[in-house]
């Protein structure tokens, strides 16, 4: 699917982490992929999670943190959750953001006070607005059009600063021109963030939210402002630093957010061994990434194990497990069926499909074409 215009990625290089900072949240990515060593799973012997473990899904006692993390996906028993497919979650725009126009492999977006042009491979159709509108954008990304490729920004009208303040769903944060064409927020995620916000506000109790591959912390700030206790995990120090800047911008230092700079898989493996539990888990892994200590992440090799561990750390009264996948050659059915297998015996339903952005014209109020951005799968208890 689309280039995930999201977060700074954790890759070595100028400015950005998790996807845009310098890689994607939770894993530091790199343009070149040196020979990958096995993913750190404790034994170090298996590069991909095995699927032949005979163990069924059962409650496990809390064991010492020093115990070796498991490297195999559990074989689940019980009925698969109900399914709701296909579901298209649409973002028409929000305060400080909307998609203006798209076409010819590009997209024109409004980010706060700025109109920005970036590459968009999914925009196969012609542009709607005339050339002079596009040419007068405040900033245009040029150079490498690969999602992780480095490029530069051109400012046709006047030079702009590196950052600017924005606000979405009551969360204040900085937009930033990064060398990886991302600007610090992935607005199509508004559909998930709005759902999460409603779950938190109507729960009647404080929910615990885990934001894996959390990037610049917009989702974490939204969750905490809604009343949740949040754990934010990203392997990029730059992404964590940016997230803390966002927290300070909104004068939100009092919010209950734990900012953790660590490899996402190592973190959830340790949480499983500790017996930690969360009510909502958001996970938005990159296609390829590296942790801060050289840990290797390959989406198709490690996703099943990651989701399996996430299931184990869901609380008995959990409200949802959300997976978003960008820039992969797969159908939403792939992650849909994986999520249903992962959640066997847990009841509820799995709803899967695509996240899209809806064009809104210059003023944001003229509904136009739908731009597909990513695949998603979401388990909910009912």
Fold blueprint:
Layout (H helix, E strand, L loop, with lengths): L22 E2 L2 E2 L53 E10 L5 E7 L2 E6 L2 E6 L11 H5 L3 E5 L7 E4 L8 E6 L2 E6 L13 H12 L6 E5 L5 H9 L2 E6 L2 H13 L7 E5 L2 H11 L5 E4 L4 E3 L5 E3 H14 L7 E6 L6 H11 L6 E10 L11 E11 L2
Helix pairs in contact: 2-3, 5-6
What can you see in these coordinates?
The N terminus is likely disordered. The two termini are 28 Å apart. Strands 3-18-19-17-14-11-12-13 form an 8-stranded mixed beta sheet, with helices on both faces. Strands 4-5-6-7-8 form a 5-stranded mixed beta sheet, with no helix packed on it. It has a two-stranded antiparallel ribbon with strand order 1-2. It has 382 residues and is of the alpha/beta class. 20% of the residues lie in helices and 28% in strands. Helix 3 links the parallel strand 11 and strand 12. The chain is built from 7 helices and 19 strands.
Strand elements, count: 19
Strand order of the largest sheet: 3-18-19-17-14-11-12-13
Overall spatial form: globular
Distance between the termini: 28 Å
Helix residue percentage: 10-25%
In round numbers, the mean pLDDT is 84
């Amino acid at each position: 699917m689309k280039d995930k215009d999201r977060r700074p990625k954790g890759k070595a290089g100028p400015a950005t982490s998790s996807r845009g900072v310098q890689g994607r949240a939770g894993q530091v990515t790199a343009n070149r992929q040196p020979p990958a060593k096995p993913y750190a799973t404790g034994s170090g012997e298996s590069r991909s999670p095995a699927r032949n473990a005979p163990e069924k899904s059962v409650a496990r006692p809390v064991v010492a943190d020093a115990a070796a993390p498991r490297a195999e996906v559990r074989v689940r028993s019980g009925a698969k959750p109900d399914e709701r497919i296909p579901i298209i979650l649409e973002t028409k725009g929000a305060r400080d953001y909307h998609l203006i126009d798209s076409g010819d492999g590009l997209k024109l977006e409004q980010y706060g006070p700025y109109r920005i042009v970036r590459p968009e491979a999914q925009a196969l159709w012609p542009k709607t607005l005339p050339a002079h509108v596009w040419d007068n954008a405040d900033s245009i990304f040029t150079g490498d059009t690969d999602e992780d490729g480095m490029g530069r920004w051109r400012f046709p009208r006047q030079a702009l600063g590196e950052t600017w303040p924005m606000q979405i769903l009551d969360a204040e944060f900085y937009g930033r021109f990064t060398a990886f064409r991302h600007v610090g927020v992935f607005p199509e995620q508004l559909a998930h963030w709005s759902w999460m916000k409603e779950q938190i506000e109507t729960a009647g109790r404080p929910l615990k939210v885990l934001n894996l591959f959390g990037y610049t912390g917009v989702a974490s700030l939204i969750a905490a402002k809604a009343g949740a206790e949040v754990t934010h995990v990203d392997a990029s120090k730059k992404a964590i630093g940016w997230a803390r800047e966002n927290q300070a911008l909104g004068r939100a230092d009092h919010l209950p957010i734990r900012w953790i700079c660590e490899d996402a898989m190592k973190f959830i493996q340790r949480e499983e061994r500790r017996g930690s539990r969360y009510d909502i888990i958001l996970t938005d892994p990159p296609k390829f990434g590296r942790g801060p200590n050289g840990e290797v992440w390959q989406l198709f090799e490690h996703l099943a194990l990651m989701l399996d561990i996430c299931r184990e750390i869901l609380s008995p009264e959990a409200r949802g497990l959300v997976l978003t996948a960008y820039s992969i050659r797969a159908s939403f059915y792939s992650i849909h069926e994986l999520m249903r297998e992962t959640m066997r015996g847990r009841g509820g339903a799995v709803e899967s499909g695509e996240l899209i952005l809806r064009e809104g014209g210059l003023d944001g109020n003229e509904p136009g074409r739908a731009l597909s951005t990513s695949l998603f799968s979401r388990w909910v208890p009912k």
